[in-house]
Amino acid sequence: MLENIGYLAAVLTTFSFLPQAVLTLRTRKTDEISLIMYLMLNVGIACWLVYGLVRDDLAIILANSVTLLFSLPILLVKGSNKLAGRE
Length: 87
Hints:
Helix content is 82%, strand content 0%. It contains four helices and no strands.
């Protein structure tokens, strides 16, 4: 039962990034998104992924792999917009 709660938490928190990722990729608008926040978030997610790999914990590995897949494009678009002077 406890493991199922962990998987549910992983699914909910992971897929919470999907609407923002879709919106950002569709509109390319990132002026109201914090670059520092998304940079810190993606580094933290990558650290959790490494932690999960070292511990061989499938829930942590899956959740953070998918979260990184949704969160990293937002960071890349934000960084691209910043470098191009669109913000």
